[in-house]
Amino acid sequence: MYSKTRAWKTRKIRKRLLKLKEYFDQGDLVSVLTAQPIDRFLDYKAPEGGCFNAAFVEVPLGPRKVIGVVWGEGRGDFDNNKIRSVRRVLDVPPLREELKTFLEKAADYTLTPLASMLRLATRAPGLGDPPSMRVVYQLSQNPSGKLTDARRCVLEVIKNYGGVPFTLGELAELAGVSSSVVKGLAKMGVLVEIQAPKDMPFTWLDPSQAGKTLTDAQSRARELLMVQMESPAFNTTLLRGVTGSGKTEVYLEAVAHCIASGQQALVLLPEIALTSEFIVRVEERFGARPAEWHSGVTMTERRRTWKMAAQGGLQLVVGARSALFLPFRALGLIVVDEEHDSSYKQEDGVLYNARDMAVLRASIAGAKTVLSSATPSLESWTNAQMGKYAKIELTERVGLAQMPQLKAIDMRVQELPANRWVSPVLQDEIATRISKGEQSLLFLNRRGYAPIKLCRACGEQLGCQSCDARLVEHRFQKRLICHQCGETSQIPEVCPACGKENSLAVVGPGVERLSEEASLAFPGARVVTLSSDVFGSARAMKQQIETIAMGGADIIVGTQLVAKGHNFPNLTLVGVIDTDIGLQGSDLRAAERAFQLVRQVAGRAGRAEKPGLALIQTHQPEHPVIKAILSGDDNRFWTAEAGARQLVGAPPFGRLAGVLISAPQAEDAFSVGNELARNGTPLLQIGAKIYGPAVAPIARIRGRHRVRMLIKAEKTAPLQKAIRQWLRPLKLANDVRLSIDIDPQSFL
Ligand code: ADP
Ligand code: ZN
Question: Which tens digit of pLDDT belongs to each residue from 686-715?
Answer without folding.
Answer: 999 999 899 998 999 999 999 999 999 999
